[in-house]
Amino acid sequence: MSTIAELKELLAQPRQIFITTHHKPDADALGSSLGLAGYLRKKGHHVTVVTPSDYPDFLAWMPGNEGVVVYDPRRNDAQVRAIINEAEVLFCLDFSCLNRISELGEYVRAAAGTKVLVDHHQEPEDFAQLDFSNPKAAATAELIFEIIRDLGDQDLIDTGIGECLYAGIMTDTGSFRHPSTSRNVHLIIAELLSAGINLSDVHRRIYDSHSEERLRFLGFVLKDKLTVLREYNTAYIAITADELRQYHSKTGDTEGLVNFALSIEGIVFAAILIDRKQAIKISFRSVGGFSVSEFSRRHFSGGGHHNAAGGISHEPLDKTVTRFLELLPEYQSQLVAAPLAAAHP
Ligand code: 5GP
Ligand code: MN
């Protein structure tokens, strides 16, 4: 863990700053990036936010969204490489290994500027000169708030920056219900309220802005695609590329679906496996002592948090599902015996 004094020195003069975050940014990824960008611009820095892929429309309201460069290897590779190479400071937010930012990973690794990692995932890769990763934090946006505060600049957090940070904390805590929702989280929210954020507006923009099609897709998934395996306290959903096409699924439309599987009484482990064509993308969730980050790291080249993780498979969907099912007996005792009270470590 680096010190705030080191960061203060790095930012003591106006800098060319590059900020990036993980593939398919969620509200914490984009909210922490745009919250930090808004603050750094107020301090006189020149800031560019680059995302490794597109992200859902329900995040587009965030102030600074219009200036985000969405990396596309066929369209703006040279432009993005130039931004990375010219950056004096590279902030890497809400991801712990460079392979989470696809092609950008190697560009960032080779960049000459000072790399600053701000993240809350387990087992961070050692690639940054300044490291503010803390797996105990509920969200990267929580860490960004603390960094701005500790730099002595909390008064620069205006409504726009505050709403970006609030969005990240709200979504990564599952609307303040996961065990990561600490006293510190609530104290920070109180400070953001003092900065004038409108929390019901943020909630509505993120959770109540679905298309009719997305809701019909949800109906289809819950009715036809959900499998419950009582003997393992497990439920999973597998979605084919054809089904995504049939429902005109857009980026973000599958977000949160896995939580429906986990919301069934008695279920402690949930998975959603989605055929994204280039690969099968998997999201895992758990309640209690079963570590999905460990499971995902071990079997699906992934990682994340104790109760929320993701991974990938390069086999076809049906083979991936079979492999997932074949792993369950090995974990049966943990899944069945694990008392819910033994929650987060
Ligand atoms: P989600 O299932 O919502 O995509 O991700 C859950 C958590 O796991 C997030 O914190 C996300 O950053 C992390 N995660 C998702 N996919 C991967 C992956 O392929 N590798 C790693 N290391 N982490 C992932
Ligand atoms: Mn996060």
Automatic annotation (TrEMBL):
InterPro entries: DDH_dom, DHH_sf, DHHA1_dom, Oligoribo/pAp-PDE_c-di-AMP_PDE. Residues 250-329 form the DHHA1 domain. Residues 16-169 form the DDH domain. It comes from Hymenobacter amundsenii. This is DHH family phosphoesterase. One of its GO terms (molecular function) is nucleic acid binding.
